[in-house]
Every structure is written in C-alpha cells, then in structure tokens.
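hey m, so remember when u said the tokens were messed up on ur end? i reran from scratch. heres the input so u can diff it against urs
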Amino acid sequence: MLLTGKQANFVFFSEKSISRETVQVQMSFVDHFGVQSNGENSKDEEEKEGSGGGNRDFDMYPLEFPPEKIPNVNYRMAKFSPGGCSPDKGTLLALVQDNYRVDLYSSFKDSSSLQLWKPFFDLSSKLVQFHKESSFNSDAKVDAKEYQRRLDLCGTTCLAWSPVIQESTGRYFTLLALGGRGVGSIWKYYCQSLDSFEFVGWIPRHESWASELVWSRDGEGETTLENLILTSSSVDGSVFLSKVVQQEDNSVQLPIVKTISTPDGKPVHSLQWNHDQNYLAFGKAGTLFVYSPRTNNLYRKNNAHSNLISGMIWMNFRNCLFTSSLDGTVNSWEFDEEEPFKQNIKLLRTVCKSSEEYHGLALSHNNLILMVVERVPPTFNVMYAFRKPYTRLNMISLNGHENDLEAQLMRSSKVLYLWDVLKTLEVLKDENRTFNIVNSFFNAFKSKKESLDLSRGEDVEQLARYGGSLRLANIVSSTLSDSELLSASVNMIQENSFDLQQILVFQCFSDFLSANLIANNLQVVGDTEALSLLLMADWVLMNQSRIFPLLLEMTHSIYENFQGEIPSSLRSRETCPFCSTPVQVTNEIEEKCSNGHHLERCSRTMLLISSPQVWNCCCKRKSLILGGELANGLKDSFSWRRDCAFSSIPSCPCCGGYYSLLRYRTYVDSFLS
C-alpha cells in the first residue's frame, strides 16, 4: 500500500490511485489488463477463486464514484479486500477518512453499464454502537477527558484485510483489523454477504496511535486462523507480533508473541513483510530495520535516510527493498542475512532525488516499474489553492538495475500483467529486443506443443492453458514499428492464430459435452447457442487436416447430437445482416458477402456480428454481448464459455485482454461499403 499522508492527493494500492479532487479510482494505464501466462492454475486454486476465496488477479476495479455520491472528505488510507469478497464476487474498498471514520464501498453497474463504487456498509456507526453497549459508561459525566476517551475508542487510523480463510462449514471469510487512537478491533466478514460484519476480538494496544497493520502467515501452506499473524506498529515506536488464537465461542484473541521494537518516541510509519514472509522491514524515523523470525535477529541500518521513512516495498522475487523518505530520496537496498553483522543491509543505489518530500511508493506486478508519490508545493493563489494537485506520481523503470525484462518474463508463472512490460519496451525503444521477446513466446508454445500427445484430452487441456504464450506475443508485437520486424511478427501471429482458434473450439466443445447438454437435454440450448456450436463444427470440418484428433471426435459428437449425422459438405448457416445473402464460415476474421458487405465474426462464438452493441478489444477483435453480461445482451448465455471464470468482465480469447464498450462505435462503414 502507498499512503501519502493527511495533506496528500493520492492514496495508491494495487496499481490504483485515488485523487482527492475527483475521488476517482483510476487505472494507472489504459492498457492495464492481465492474461494467462505460460503456467497453469491448479484446480484447487480455480475452485477457490470461483467460490469467493483466493486472489483473483483478473479482477477489474470500477473507475469512479457516481457523481452524486462523491464524498467531500480527505482520506488517510485506502485498502482493497481480497478478491471474491463483495456480493458480485469482486472486491470491497475500505477508506479511512481524516476524521477517523471508515467507509466501505463495493462495485456495481449503473444504467449505462459503467462500473462504479457505491457505499456498502457503515462500519464506523456499527463500531460506535458496539462501544456504546460495551465500553461507554452511561452514568459517567461526559467531560473533556471522557469525550476524548470515546473518540479514541471509535477512531480508526489504519486497517488491514486478512487473506481469505475457509471454515470447516465451507464458507469463506476475511478478518478486517481496525487500528486506532485507542484499542483496535477485529471484525469478521463472510465473503459475498451483504452486511455480516461481526466483532470477534481486540488488537493489542500500543501506548499511542496505531500507524500500520499487516497480516502475514506463520509458516508455509494454506492460510488458517491458527497460523495467522498480525503485525502492528505505532507512532510511539513500538512494533508487535500478535498470533490469532480462536476461542470456543468463535471469538479470537491476539496475544503478543514478540515485541520487535519497544516504545522510544521515534515513530514507525511503514512496515512490510517480504514476498516469502520471512523478513519484516520497518522504518523508525530515518533508521531502517529488518527482523528475521527464523533467527530472531533485528538488523538495522542507521541513517538510511535523513528524515522520516514514509514508505517501503519489497520486490517479489529477491530480497531487494525500496524505501522512500521525506528527505526527498528513494533508495534500493539488498538484504542478505548470511553477510557479517552490520553488513546485512547494503545500499544498492539512490533511485531518485527531489527537492520535495516523497510520501510513499509501490511496485508494478512484474517489478519493472517503481511508482513514487512526490509532494508538490501548493500554489500561492488562494483562489485556486484547492484545485491544484498537491502530489504527483512518478514512474521509474527498474529494467537494467534491480530487474531485467527478459528474466522477469521467464519468472512469470501464472498471471502476467502487461502494462509495465509494454511501458518498459516503450522506454527501451529497442525493436530487435522486442522482436526477440515475441519470438521467445512463439517458441515456448511450439516446444510445449511438440512435447504433448494431442490425442489425449489432458494434454490438449494442458496446451490450452499454455496458450497464454501466443496471447502475450500478439500483444507485445503491437509495439513494433519497424516494417521488416513487424511483417515477420505478423506472419508468426497468423501461423499460430489457428492454434488459438483450436483451443477456443476445444474448450467450448469440452465444456458443453461434459455438462451433459446433449441428447435428452437439448431443450436447454438456445437457438444462437446451437448455431454457434455448429459454426465451430463447420470450421473444424473445413480444416480437418490440421485439427487435433480429439477435437475431430468431439466435432462428430456435436453433429450427431444437433443434426443426427456428419454433413458431406458445408453449407451456409447465416445470412448477411445487410442484404440477407447466405454466408458461410471461413478462416478469416473479417469476411465479405457476395454483395461486398464487410462482415465480422464474434471472437468468442463465431457468430456474425449484426449489432452495434459489442465488446471491443485492444487487439481490434470484437465480441457479441452474451446473455447475462449486460442488459442489452443476447438472450442466450453460452454457459460453457470460460472467459468469465475469473472476472465479471469477459476477456478476449485471442489476446487475453479485457473487453470494453465503445459507445460511439457504429457500423456506418459497413453500410457505406
């Protein structure tokens, strides 16, 4: 998380920013999307994600608050819940106001199908009501001291969502820790419920205000209540480790198991566990500390900064730590516990300097871009004082320093977010290097394909999950401008796009047949759904010399269940929406009818597009809006499609990017042609 302080404009978390002026949650880049990479999700992970648990990296966040719902307040902190928590299987957004209230928001779609945030639950009011019943002395005189005590009890300065945990009953929940000016509290929330926030315990009290809370796991394996650790820090300089202990009445206690730092008046405003959760870093004034639970040693670097350390974050594949400070510097550090004492924390470099303060930082998913919030002095013009931003977001490429682009792409095993990859390529301006990356993606898919027996269903499924390599190549190749390299890249894409189409058809047939939507259950299949499957079967029959053997067998089953026999020759199943001329499926994305009208096919269903209301993708492909996706979608839902398994927003099967709506897009060019 990146927190910029009480006077700042941006709160940054998980590559999203909140502006004080517009209070909009925005993407850092327009082309922020995730695609499946070379690795494979396990079945357990997929089931957990679909059940409201796990970390759904595919989840897209709403872009803004409704205009009539914009809160006119400043925020101290913002944190997103784990994926799958909100009623729509998305995320919840928790905001801490500068008046110490907590606002909870969830996503929803307005009448124009725009994703927005809406108020979800008034947790602060429930916290006040809880203390009224348990902590307020109704008989006591409410003098200044009692009033301050009540404010301290109900005020929140920081918060933290725990990982999602599964109960023995099968339900998923998360714990929301609230740290404040007095004693903190723990609230249990059942994923996808509407208002089930339940008080379950207290957080160990610091002598002063809590400044940061971080959940972690004790040991390896699945996260449970028994191995959950809460790390808390305070402006008095103390840092505690507390272990969750569940009681018989399902409440929890958090006894302090380790006092890492004692109160000394030097404030702690940032702490972070590394990716493997075996090292805890925190800043105390300008001194940097790293605690190792394994050896119980506390390592320190005096004068790491000449002013307060305002933010820190670890890289996710090495023990490299970035710190920002109010002294106007951002440093990178290498931690090695095996080095001699007092040499464990080494300065790698000063990443950037400024005459102003740095208030926090964050890393992109692939650790290729470092984002730093820098304070900007306010204008002296009183009239415009509240209209000008007080902070700006600087983005710094780490390629060639703490990270390397090619090495990072090889490390990405599951989901690869591409916006920082594309940004790094833009900064490099090396066409040959970009082409080599594209070529490596194609070669990775080719070698995997050659190693599999495509007559076996599990091997075809494995190849389908490996199709992310081709999607990555499609996207990265779009940054090429050299004519020769671009031509060579296009040829490779066309050569391998056939395999992506096979993967799409195989997944549709496999899921349709396995769901038993055949024979006696044909009545549940809509007309457009049946037409889509038959068009795919026609495409397979047209290219049968190049098709996987198993896919040919599935195609025969499709024909037998819808037509009773395999056709001896292909026939036209659709007509041109402009002149009603019969149209037959081809290998081309853009087709022409016999009268010359330009036609496009849906990238998910292979149906002809005859409506201006479509999904658009950055790779220039389009898709029909299927039933259940938007109010103006088709009647049929195509339940066997997999593109909505990880998000409420469908994704393109060709590049993996999320679809978007372009409301100004029309089909006038088709009529003119």
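this time it looks ok to me. The chain has twelve helices and 38 strands. if urs says something different then somethings off w ur setup not the seq
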